[in-house]
User: Which sequence fits this backbone?
């Protein structure tokens, strides 16, 4: 269960005066710390406007309270593979996407960029393969459709 989410830094830039033709969202997990049932996750969020029109960067932290067994599983997977369990990844990705997307609406306004809203829920794909199907890692990305790349 998410107990706290905070944004620590925000930066919005309009890099060139051109039409906005698309948006790519990248959510990364930088650090996971487990202490008993408490899990702290440091994240970064990057919304890149296509054709180098602009960008929105945010960093922050999510804190969750988990059952001891789940906390141990999270710690083990992160320590070993820099990944998180699928269901937990979905929870974290959706919380980051929602929080940064909604707060980003206000942040990008002064630099005349479109809101970075990606409303669909993020779901981990099942059935193996590459591209984040087994959990969230440093290289996993979220496409504008809200699907893991």
Assistant:
């Amino acid at each position: 269960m998410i107990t706290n989410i905070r944004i620590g830094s925000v930066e919005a830039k309009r890099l060139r005066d051109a039409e906005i033709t698309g948006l790519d969202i990248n959510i990364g997990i930088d650090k996971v710390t487990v202490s008993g049932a408490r899990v702290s996750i440091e994240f970064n969020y990057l919304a890149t406007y296509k054709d180098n029109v602009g960008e929105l960067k945010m960093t922050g932290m999510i804190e969750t309270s988990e059952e001891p067994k789940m906390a141990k599983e999270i710690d083990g997977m992160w320590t070993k593979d820099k990944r998180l369990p699928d269901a937990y990844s979905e929870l974290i990705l959706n919380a980051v996407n929602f929080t940064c997307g909604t707060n980003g609406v206000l942040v990008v306004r002064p630099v005349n960029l479109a809101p970075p809203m990606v409303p669909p829920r993020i779901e981990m794909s099942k059935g193996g393969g590459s591209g984040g199907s087994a959990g969230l890692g440093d290289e996993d990305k979220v496409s504008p459709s809200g699907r893991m790349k």
